[in-house]
Design a protein that fits this description.
By secondary structure, the protein is an alpha/beta fold. It has helices at 3-12, 34-50, 78-95, and strands spanning 24-25, 28-31, 54-55, 60-63. The protein is built from 3 helices and 4 strands.
Length: 105
Amino acid sequence: MELRTTVRRVVLSDDPHPYLDGRAVGCVTSAMGWQAAVSTLTALRSIVHSLRGWPTPLGVPLNTAEVRFDADGTCSDQRAYDSLRLVGRQVAEFALGEVGHHRLH
């Protein structure tokens, strides 16, 4: 889904928590080169903060010149695979209330 469409859905929803308030967001970017992937990740993390979300401690930039995914989703790079799993784990832990302020109220 395009980022602009996602932002519109989040901002215009009737959810009692506006924007991404109190939600963990796993940030993953891809680009044809490390510089572009990392700078895009930095921008994405800023966008999440601007929408009151909590970017996970780990963000994953993927260099598409080095990392590939097969049709079945298999990742060609073990380090990238491990990083993606960790970001997913961080989002899940937050959502389950192991971290975060919504579960404390």
